Amino acid sequence: MFDGNYNQHLRLAYLVRPDESAVLVHGIQIQNIKENAWYEVFVDEHTGQLVSVTDFGAKATSGTYRAVPIYKHSLVDGTELIFHPEDLEASPYGWHENWTVLSTDVWEGATYRTNWDDDDWEVVAFDYPYDQTVAPTPVENRDAASITNAFYVGNMVHDFAWRYGFKPLTFNVQSDTIQDKWARGDDSVWIRIQWTPGVSDASFTTPPDGQPGILRLYIWNKSNPSRDPALANDILFHELTHGITGRVIGGGSAACLQTLEAKGLREGWSDAMAEWTEQTSATVDDYVIGAWINNNAAGLRTYPYSTDPTINPLRYSSLAGLTNVYQIGEVWANVLHNVYAALVQAHVWASTRFTNPDTSEGNVIFMRLFFDSLSI
Questions:
Q1: 35 an active-site residue?
Q2: Can you tell me which family this protein belongs to (predicted)?
């Protein structure tokens, strides 16, 4: 789990958890001189589980990012300077480790490796503006704002999905499986920014557990200047959800979801996940995906997702005769929209939805059912 040697310092202590409960732990120091790494890990004396890690090094594990907040649609809603968004339960080492600016856990932007060197390492503040008056392709837009947002959203997806059960032993995607030593690692997702050839599209490839998935984001030419889906959180969530559903269903084999109906379900799940992040109160609004990136208020689908049949008439019976996976996905996503709305109406809404899956509010129940059902 940790690459280093036990350095003979052991102690018995009580560790106070965030909920103010205390647990008896063994503190064990592990040191790797070659990698300049030195940790103290705390193991529950009763269960043997790892409960906390202290990093004695000065390297950065946390960062500050100018990005589109995870609950917003896209760049049209504005960016914010977001301080230390990582969830240390899901990412104990944070998002930066091993003296690089790559995520320890998942969703590594390939261009990070080549364009941001280690001279900025101790700063770890990615505050770069995006110039909307020019194309996405100039270096300042591509290597700063677009990559920062994709990196931020990808790691946020990892952390929140981990909370809901998408963990190493359930075939998730992350480099270092420190929480579950028997799970496969080294399968973080690579996000390809402004990928070519191709235009006005995005795609996700999900290989079996233990192999990295690839998210490809192509520049969209539906506006002038063109737009970068790395700044469209709805598109990022939709595509990254393919990596979740493709892994969990089939037990990490990535071999399921191959029939027409299954592919349609997969598209519907991805839209539903994107919508879930943007519903920000107990009032369930109609939802449109792809409005900004497609430069069209109607977005990418035939109808908005809605509880009002005069706005979206799609029902289960609408599936008859459909042969397009996206049209099938629209039916399923609208069904899920109505399920979500009913749960929130009955059980209200929780603002802590990204970090606390154990409450009884309707939006949290919906996401628990979403993840739990994938494993059935």
A1: no
A2: Belongs to the peptidase M36 family.
229 Cβ neighbours under 8 A, 6+ residues apart: 202, 217, 218, 219, 220, 235, 236, 293
Of 86, 97, 239, 361, which one is the catalytic site residue? Answer: 239
Please give the Cα distance from 216 to 95 (Å, whole number): 21
* 168 secondary structure, DSSP code: G
Question: How much is the CA Rg of the chain, to the nearest whole Å?
Answer: 21
pTM: 0.79
CATH number at residue 94: 3.10.170.10
pLDDT averaged over every residue in the chain: 84
- Lowest mean pLDDT across 19-28, 183-192, 209-218, 361-370: 183-192
- Binding site as annotated, residues: 238, 242, 267
Q: pLDDT tens across 134-159, in order?
A: 999 888 787 667 889 999 999 999 99
| Whether the predicted pLDDT of 57 surpasses 70 | no
One domain, residues 289 and 195: no
Q: Are residues 208 and 308 in the same domain?
A: no
Per the annotation, binding residues for Zn(2+) are 238, 242, 267
In the prediction, which pLDDT does 35 show? 55
Domain shared by 121 and 210, yes or no: yes
Can you give the pLDDT at residue 128? 85
Q: Are residues 104 and 238 in the same domain?
A: yes
How far lies 177's CA from each of 142, 146, 277, in Å? 30, 27, 26
Which two tokens mark 222?
Answer: 């539906």
Residues in the chain: 376
